[in-house]
Specification:
Distance between the termini of chain C: 55 Å
Order of helices and strands of chain C: HHHHHEEHHHHHHH
Number of domains of chain C: 1
InterPro entries (chain B): BCAA_transport, Leu-bd, Peripla_BP_I
CATH superfamily of the largest domain in chain B: Response regulator
Strand order of the largest sheet of chain C: 1-2
Keywords (chain B): Signal
Number of helices of chain B: 15
Strand content of chain C: under 5%
Protein name (chain B): ABC transporter substrate-binding protein
Oligomer: heterotrimer
Chains: A mainly alpha (about 325), B alpha/beta (about 450), C mainly alpha (about 300)
CATH topology of the largest domain in chain B: Rossmann fold
Helix content of chain B: 40-55%
CATH architecture of chain C: Orthogonal Bundle
Pfam families (chain B): Peripla_BP_6
Number of strands of chain B: 15
CATH class of chain C: Mainly Alpha
Family (chain B): Belongs to the leucine-binding protein family.
Distance between the termini of chain B: 89 Å
Largest sheet of chain C: 2 strands, antiparallel
CATH topology of chain C: ABC transporter involved in vitamin B12 uptake, BtuC
Chain lengths: ~325, ~450, ~300
């Protein structure tokens, strides 16, 4: 396997973050873990965006991944983190394969609203499940990884970061290739003009369906990682404002590169946490202004900072 | 062309470096900020500053805490808290918005402890946030007081708590108290209905209330329960649905603006002239209803707080200071926040530490202790000494000549409304309150 | 039988409120193709403005009911039109021509900003301007009662709906707007000042949102976060009815209103799902909503 330049850069960045995690303070390790998990869900949003679809219901898969970890640990007695994540992916893929048959027929705002509706129906079901703690949610059991128990405190959050980093790297490398595969390119073609795609003998339905299911699976992994790191799941994960946040971050980063969601998620989390600290009464306003400025000056997302020159030249 | 292809590569490398540098520099900033915290005690205070819970709970709580903190630093509190500072140290506070859900709160909690380097945390109105924070507080070994959240699962989920405390009652006490008050004052009521916000608090409250009613008023029939959404505002349809059931009593655990809106609408629609409402958190509306709740509406205050505070030096001082600052008497969230800050001062003063007391010293001092507060003497007698055991009070709202007051107030001792340690609260009610002591 | 009557009455009362909330959203989308997330904030602004103006009026000893309604209308219209103008001129103008989804994000940013602006102006304490609602009293029908104020909302909603329809179908500006809806480029070529029409449309849409909030203010306790709660509701109604269609918004509101009332009276447990179930159900059979236009796909 020959590694492309992007891939080397991705691996390099992952190694750099892994090394950095040894020296930076613990809160940053935790924040970075959450940012990486969020970025995975955002990756799913970006995948759909490349095909011209905007999902306001990606929280559905995020929540499924999270609850699979919570329930798998609680009721099935699974403690291995990787097994729990696989469980989440299996459930999510099952759900996405059914929903995908329906929602991939829709475009634009109708796709957005339909995905939102399904996510809100899951939210409603969980709110109604008194046995699962309703809106209070419940705690995730202490997990292990391949027989190794990360314990508690600093070593635990570092293990979570390394796990998230490993998963994210794998997914990023896969998606980097996927975006350049015929399937990934067909998605972009569909965004540009889907009727022509059909003329070329490609089934847009099939392409969108596969893309949708993969995006769901990636979102589920993000949800599972969040649950493992935060140690708690609750129905808010499926609420529409959380899905809105994912779209927010996706646009913040842009759809140009697999690394974009990671950078955007980290920036978003840091801006938010410092805004909350500096202006507890006006942090939403700061967030809103930052968003406006980015849209105004970087309409293609933060990533365009790194590719702007290229665009001019070609 | 060649140029344009090469740029992204070094830019990507630059990007990787930039990210690491950014992360590292943030880290350094975090470390630098911790260096200069010697002479003061830093408290993280978490409460709703935005969203629907901020007005009725979050902000009054922050104001209540602020008044006590200011008085602690001036040394102007009444005895036994008339010494300056906590353990002689200036009490500094950082306020954080509780909005955003449990995952975000876990993140903010870690930031408080590790980045802002606080010495203790007080906070949490939402039960979901409390449940998520509990295990993290234990893991991070940080002295933490939950001042308001009501879930009875908090100390069921933490085995052998060391650092997590709650200086108030849980929601079970609210609803057992409500059932006891009805059994004593409305023994003839037959048709019972309810309206609860559609989330864990509402579901738990209704479950505990109906279980307690089955024990205390077995003749009464539960006819209907409405579950409108949180912050819905208009309850027109729900009120019709309740009216068609012709209830005698309407129980509601709704809080804040929702509770006030429902009461005013049900009053205009005539529902409250057919039925008496019992509002488990109604006290926060005592000075806000302005006659929009009919006289005789039963209000609770989640314990001896707000309008139910007993008369003592601390409560008189607190009420006076709060009125002077904000023009209205303190509601129950304000007094609950004040109580948590007093608990912190008590723990710090009696920790015997030199300088800043450690979390272990604070926890040891508060565990199982008795301290004076705005609600009288508080005994930390539940959950192995980690939760307060306090009386529960209910009373009737009366509004005359522009003045609101509570009449026919009854208090039930802590042992009368809370399950003893070792019992699941719901099990305790179902078994007919074993070990109950109502004198 | 009692329950059936109750469902009908409650259903239409709720539908009229839903229509008021959704009308402005659908007008703006129809003409400008912007799904305005900040619509909820305009609703909240209208509610805050009306509640604080009413509070000021009643604390000054005012008692005249007609005056109170004039105050509600004036304060809501004023704040809606001004904020609408400010958002359109100050922010949206810089962004026209961007992707529909980016426009959505822009209005989301506006929503975030407005939420905190309202908090800075009005604080977090709930505003409670119940006097007009209480003064109108109720009508008794057997054990059921209907608040006269709710009936008034119904009347206002019908008047606004008919007014909007008349404006779009029977006036010159309405014709111009419809030409923009059908083909923006051609109408621009025919000499229509599209930019000015956008400003007018956005101000009207914003004012409608503020009026909905203003008229709701005496029923509820006005608290922070109010706008966030109504926005998805309004979206769902508008999408069910068909985006950009006034008739669609009205029909969507009636369907959702009746479905919700039925659920509350017969199965209160299902209330949370009903609006999304209705929306998903309608979209499955009518992919563009009940009255939505099918837009030809580009080749």
């Amino acid at each position: 396997m020959i590694l492309g330049k992007s891939e080397i850069a991705l691996i390099g960045a992952a190694v750099a973050i892994a090394l950095a995690s040894l020296v930076v303070p613990n809160w940053l390790v935790f924040t970075a873990t959450l940012a990486i998990s969020t970025a995975l869900v955002v990756m799913g949003v970006v995948m759909l965006m490349r095909a011209g679809l905007v999902s306001f219901g990606q929280g559905l898969f995020y929540c499924l991944g999270g609850y699979a970890v919570g329930l798998g640990g609680r009721y099935l007695g699974i403690t291995d983190a990787l097994l729990l994540i696989v469980l989440g992916v299996a459930v999510t893929v099952g759900v996405a394969m059914i929903l995908g048959l329906l929602v991939t027929r829709y475009r634009e705002i109708f796709f957005a609203m339909l995905s939102l509706a399904f996510s809100m129906i899951l939210y409603g079901l969980l709110v109604k499940s008194h046995g699962l703690g309703s809106t209070d949610g419940f705690g995730v059991v202490d997990w292990t990884i391949l027989g190794f128990s990360p314990g508690s405190g600093e070593s635990s959050s570092r293990t979570a970061l390394l796990l998230a980093l490993g998963l994210a790297l794998g997914i990023a490398l896969f998606l980097n290739r996927y975006f350049r595969s015929s399937l990934g390119l067909a998605c972009e073609a569909i965004r540009e003009n889907e009727v022509r795609v059909e003329y070329m003998g490609v089934s847009r339905k099939q392409v969108l369906y596969i893309n949708y299911v993969i995006a769901a699976a990636v979102g589920s992994i993000g949800g599972s990682m969040t649950a493992l790191a935060a140690g708690h799941v609750d129905p808010t994960m499926a609420y529409w404002t959380i899905s809105g946040e994912f779209v927010f971050i996706a646009i913040l980063g842009g759809t140009g590169h697999v690394a974009a969601p990671f950078i955007a998620a980290l920036i978003f989390t840091l801006v938010r946490t410092y805004a909350i600290e500096l202006a507890p009464n006006a942090w939403q306003m700061i967030l809103g202004i930052v968003l406006l400025l980015i849209i105004l000056f970087l309409p293609k997302g933060i990533w365009s900072l790194f590719t702007r020159k290229k665009g001019v030249a070609s | 062309m060649k140029n344009s292809n090469q740029r992204p590569i070094w830019q990507k490398t630059l990007l990787g470096t930039a990210t690491s540098v950014a992360m590292a520099s943030v880290g350094v900033m975090g470390m630098a900020a911790t260096a200069s915290a010697e002479e003061s005690f830093k408290l993280g205070f978490v409460t709703f500053l935005s969203g629907g819970a901020s007005g009725p709970f979050g902000v009054p709580a922050a104001q209540g805490a602020e008044i006590v903190i200011k008085a602690i630093n001036e040394g102007s509190l009444p005895a036994p808290y008339n010494t300056k500072g906590v353990n002689g140290l200036t009490l500094e506070s950082v306020v954080v918005d509780e909005a955003g859900g449990p995952t975000k709160q876990v993140e903010e909690y870690r930031n408080l402890v590790q980045r802002q380097d606080v010495d203790a945390v007080i906070g949490y109105i939402s039960s979901g946030d409390c449940l998520a924070i509990g295990p993290v507080a234990e893991e991070m070994k940080m002295f933490t007081i939950a001042f308001d959240c009501g879930t009875s699962r908090l100390f069921q989920e933490i085995e052998d708590p060391q650092y997590m405390f709650r200086t108030g009652l849980d929601a079970v006490a609210d609803n057992v108290g409500a059932a006891r008050y009805l059994a004593e004052t409305r023994p003839d009521a037959v048709r019972i209905a309810g309206i609860q916000q559609n989330y864990a608090w509402g579901q738990d409250s209704w479950q505990d209330f109906t279980l307690a009613m089955a024990q205390l008023m077995p003749e009464a029939e539960i006819v209907n329960n409405q579950t409108p959404q949180l912050f819905q505002g208009s309850y027109s349809t729900e009120i019709s649905a309740l009216q068609t059931q012709r209830p005698d009593i309407v129980h509601s655990s709704m809080w804040g603006g929702d509770m006030e809106s429902f009461t005013a609408q049900a009053n205009v629609r005539g529902l409250l002239s057919q039925a008496t409402a019992i509002l488990t958190t109604g006290e926060s509306g005592l000075h806000r209803f302005d006659g929009q709740a009919p006289n005789g509406t039963i209000l609770g205050g989640r314990g001896p707080f707000g309008g139910f505070m007993p008369e003592n030096d601390l409560s008189e001082w607190f009420t006076k200071a709060y009125v002077a600052e904000h023009g209205t008497p303190p509601s129950y969230p304000a007094s609950k926040a004040a109580q948590a800050v007093l608990a912190l001062k008590f723990a710090a003063d009696s920790s015997g530490a030199e300088g800043v007391p450690s979390s272990e010293q604070l926890a040891a001092a508060l565990k199982g202790a008795e301290f004076e507060s705005v609600s009288g003497t508080v005994r930390m007698a539940l959950a192995g000494g980690h939760q307060a055991l306090q009386p529960m009070s209910y009373g009737e709202y009366h509004f005359e000549n522009g003045e609101a007051e509570l009449r026919n107030v009854r208090s039930y001792s802590g042992e009368c409304v809370s399950a003893p340690d070792g019992y699941n609260a719901q099990q305790w009610i179902k078994e007919g309150f074993p070990g109950v002591d109502c004198n | 039988m009692l329950t059936v009557w109750a469902i009908l009455i409650d259903g239409f009362i709720y539908a009229s409120w839903l229509f008021l909330v959704a009308a402005g959203l659908t007008v703006i989308y129809g003409v400008m193709r912007i799904l305005n997330m900040a619509h909820g904030s305009l609703y909240a602004l209208g509610a805050y403005a009306a509640a604080s103006a009413l509070g000021w009026y009643y604390s000054g000893g005012g008692e005249n009911l007609a005056m109170a309604f004039a105050i509600i209308a004036a304060s809501a219209i004023l704040i809606g039109a001004l904020t609408g103008l400010a958002i359109e001129r100050g922010i949206l103008k810089l962004m026209y021509g961007r992707d529909e989804i980016l426009m959505l994000l822009i209005t989301f940013a506006v929503l975030l900003i407005l939420e905190d602006v309202m908090k800075l102006i009005w604080g977090t304490t709930p505003y409670f301007a119940y006097q007009p609602y209480a003064a109108l009293g109720r009508i008794n029908i057997d054990v059921l009662t209907v608040s006269r104020y709710d009936l008034l909302v119904l009347v206002v909603s019908v008047v606004i709906g008919v007014g909007l329809w008349f404006w779009l179908e029977r006036t010159k500006i309405g014709k111009i707007l419809r030409s923009i809806i059908h083909d923006r480029e051609v109408s621009e070529a025919m000499g229509v000042n599209v930019r000015r029409m956008f400003t007018i449309t956005f101000m009207i849409g914003a004012t409608l949102g503020a009026i909905a909030g203003g008229i709701t203010a005496p029923i509820i306790s006005v608290v922070p976060g109010l706008g966030i709660e109504v926005i998805v509701l309004a979206f769902a109604v508008v999408v069910t009815g068909g985006l950009g269609s006034i008739t669609g918004a009205a029909v969507g509101a009636v369907i959702v209103g009746l479905a919700r009332a039925t659920s509350i009276h017969t199965m209160p447990e299902l209330e949370l799902f009903i609006i999304y179930a209705v929306m998903a159900g309608v979209l499955i059979f009518r992919p563009h909503g009940l009255f939505g236009q099918v837009i030809a796909r580009k080749i």
